[in-house]
Known about the structure:
Blueprint: E1 2-7, H1 14-23, H2 28-35, E2 43-52, E3 55-64, H3 74-83, H4 88-109, H5 124-140, E4 144-147, E5 156-159, E6 162-165, H6 169-174, H7 192-201, E7 204-205, E8 211-220, E9 231-239, E10 245-254, H8 259-271, E11 276-283, E12 289-297, H9 302-312, E13 319-325, E14 330-337, E15 340-347, E16 352-354, H10 356-366, H11 370-381
Helix pairs in contact: 1-5, 1-7, 3-4, 4-5, 4-7, 8-9, 10-11
Amino acid sequence: MKFLYFDCFAGIAGDMTVGALLELGLPLDTLREQLAVLPFSGYTLESSRAERHGVTGTSFRVRLAAEDQPHRHYSHIARMIDEAPLSPRVKELSQRIFRRLAEAEATVHGVPMERVHFHEVGAVDSIVDIVGAAIGLDYLGIDRVCCSPLPYGRGFVKTAHGLLPVPAPATAQLLTGIPLGADIGEGERVTPTGAAIVAALAESFGPPPAMTVKGIGHGAGEKDFPEVPNLLRIVMGEDAGDPGEEVMVLETHLDDVTPEILGFLMERLFAEGALDAAFSPLQMKKNRPGTRLTVVARREDLDRLARLVLAESTAIGVRYYPVRRLTLGRKLEERETSLGTVRVKVLDNGRITPEFESCREIALARSLPLLDVYRIVEREIGAP
């Protein structure tokens, strides 16, 4: 599996993203050829070396033949990409980015998404940046994207709507749910295009995943800020050999909730996508016996499950942290036995275990002890 880790210590923009991908191996000629299938012209692509605070990176620029650029609706851009002879993955990635951007703009302006009227982001250079980023990920064969926290920025930026605070309203909307880093000074550090790229493509935000580094690309921003080098660093890597997956563990301690409420809470957690949930006894402050709730969840489900715990229990807070887990592959099959058809779980290591609900149905239907049903089924299916 190939990774990209967006290290946005100075921020991110669309042109910085493409510049870093060019350093990682995307040929400029390939980028030109694939972008040429889009139904517009009047631009040229340039790539050059740039230095920021003594560190060199690739500056990517779209030079326009005319200053005035047409403003396009989201529906127009989506149709243009869909009808272009691009690869299915480039189309999917491009559409995903533009959709996130359109959703943010629709929220800010209070209009349906189909009627969103892009200004700066609907111009040729922004379309090139977004589709170019998708072309780069497809060309490099990237399976997964992760990202660091993003800097917030301060001050104002000139837009088609006049001066707007940094980050611009659509950018701020795209930052919802994304962790923010330290204040690194005045200026627009995260553009709408840059925010849309990571909001749409990154599956996690935080430290880099375990990987073997295969390459590093630096995309240079147009401005030269005094505080930090205006560079986007993208690290490309491969799976470091750890077959586990990252999940989140959510915990809270409870000393004033009834068993009935706890049972209902566990039902709700599993119904809402928890990978696992368990209760364990513990001794709390003032010598009160209590219960520790531990939930294992996918990162994207964390916020929803945490809010569920706060709503369905007496907890006034939860804590969470990432862990990695290693699981055996499994599949469900049906096996014939003297008691009838039984559903079993077949694991990658060869172990076979009867499914509880299937054995329970047989026990009730035949008026047999459940333990006897398990013994008969395990013997006949060859379970260890």
